[in-house]
Specification:
single chain; 209 residues; alpha+beta; Arc Repressor Mutant, subunit A; Beta Polymerase, domain 2; 2 domains; 4-stranded mixed sheet; 3-stranded antiparallel sheet; 8 helices; elongated
């Protein structure tokens, strides 16, 4: 009798695993879908979006976004609600695979950050490159990327737009010359003081601070 119960549980577990695998196939299947997952699952707080807002944010065609939202809603990961004559979408926090998907996206995000740093080093000549804000777990930071040196503004803006399109995160950045930075340090500038004494990742430091 005990064997029958164990065997029954075994087959139940197999069935659940098969169902999860099927759901994963439906969830991870296209580039647009992955972008949507990053937007919905990377949020630190609950937020809903309407279709045109998502299409602009991701830089994708409206029909592609609508189709993938319908797919994610069909498997239960995304919920929709009518508000002010618009259909808004939000993540279903009760969905069984949310923790696993967040873990996968976190690893993907870490790899994306490494790639971003490598690309940042190519936009100009830097004396100081500091990552703070969202890179160290801060919510609503004053700045995420702080650069002292000479950079090509167009290249930097293009890189930030590409990162936003890829990750769904709009990074705040500040660039200043070495002369301005040293002047503000001497004045005891509050922004500089808070940045240098707070949580941060120093990637380049030729100034010796």
């Amino acid at each position: 009798m005990g064997f029958d119960v164990t065997l029954s549980r075994y087959y139940t577990i197999l069935t659940i695993i098969e169902q999860i695998l099927v759901m994963l196939e439906h969830i991870i299947g296209s580039k647009v879908r992955v972008k949507l997952l990053k937007v919905f699952l990377n949020q630190s707080e609950d937020k809903d979006y309407y279709i045109r807002e998502l299409a602009r944010l991701l830089g994708e065609h409206l029909n592609s976004v609508r189709r993938e939202l319908e797919n994610l809603e069909d498997v239960g990961l995304i919920l929709s609600e009518e508000k002010d004559k618009k259909k808004y979408y939000s993540v279903n926090k009760e969905f069984i695979l949310v923790p696993e998907l967040k873990a996968l996206l976190l690893k993907s995000h870490e790899l994306g950050e490494q790639k971003l740093v490598q690309q940042l080093e190519k936009v100009g000549s830097m004396d100081l490159l500091v990552l703070s804000g969202s890179f160290v777990g801060q919510e609503d930071p004053a700045v995420d990327i702080f650069i002292v040196g000479r950079v090509t503004k167009a290249k930097l803006e293009k890189l930030m737009k590409a990162y936003l399109k890829d990750s769904g995160k709009d990074l705040k950045y500040t660039v200043m010359s070495k002369k301005e930075f040293q002047h503000r340090v001497e004045l005891g500038d509050r922004f500089i003081f808070t940045l240098l004494n707070g949580r941060k990742i120093t990637v380049i430091n030729k100034i010796g601070i």
